[in-house]
């Protein structure tokens, strides 16, 4: 392989890495911002013994219900009620 080919492969590889990293960091940043918004709502509104429904969280934070569901399920700081579909801060 020629030197130009090696440099081209290296540049393309680096571009793919940088673009992938940018996308990953953007998703992480968006997740953390939305998680913080949900946690602030839960802290400011204790609710029913600290528990909140997904619908109430979505309405108060103005986030879409599927996004609130995803964030609550993935968050390490939010716990689900054992028997009902309610969420609280750990």
Notes on the structure:
The chain is built from 3 helices and 2 strands, in the order αααββ. It has helices spanning 3-44, 54-61, 65-74; strands spanning 78-80, 87-89. Strand 1 (78-80) and strand 2 (87-89) form a beta hairpin. Helix 1 (3-44) crosses helix 2 (54-61) and helix 2 crosses helix 3. The chain starts with a helix and ends with a strand. The relative contact order is 0.13.
Task: Record the SSE blueprint.
Layout: H1 3-44, H2 54-61, H3 65-74, E1 78-80, E2 87-89
Antiparallel strand pairs: 1-2
The major pleated sheet works out as: 2 strands, antiparallel
Number of strands: 2
**Structural class based on helices, strands and sheet pairing:** mainly alpha
Radius of gyration: 20 Å
Q: List the strand order in the largest sheet.
A: 1-2
Mean pLDDT reading: 91
**What portion of the residues fall into strands of 2 or more residues?**
5-15%
Order of helices and strands: HHHEE
Proportion in helices = 55-70%
Q: DSSP helix count? A: 3
Low-confidence residue ranges: none
CA-CA gap between termini: 57 Å
What is the 3D shape? Answer: rod-shaped
Produce a short descriptive summary.
It is built from three helices and two strands, in the order H-H-H-E-E. The mean pLDDT is 91. It has 90 residues and is mostly helical.
Tag the structure with descriptive keywords.
90 residues, 67% helix, rod-shaped, mainly alpha, 3 helices, two-stranded antiparallel ribbon, 2 strands
């Amino acid at each position: 392989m020629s030197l130009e080919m090696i440099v081209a492969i290296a540049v393309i590889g680096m571009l793919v890495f940088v673009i992938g990293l940018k996308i990953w960091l953007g998703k992480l940043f968006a997740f953390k911002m939305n998680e913080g918004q949900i946690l602030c709502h839960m802290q400011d509104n204790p609710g029913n013994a600290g528990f909140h429904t997904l619908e109430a969280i979505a309405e108060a934070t103005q986030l879409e219900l599927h996004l609130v569901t995803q964030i609550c399920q993935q968050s390490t700081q939010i716990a689900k009620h054992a028997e009902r579909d309610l969420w609280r801060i750990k």
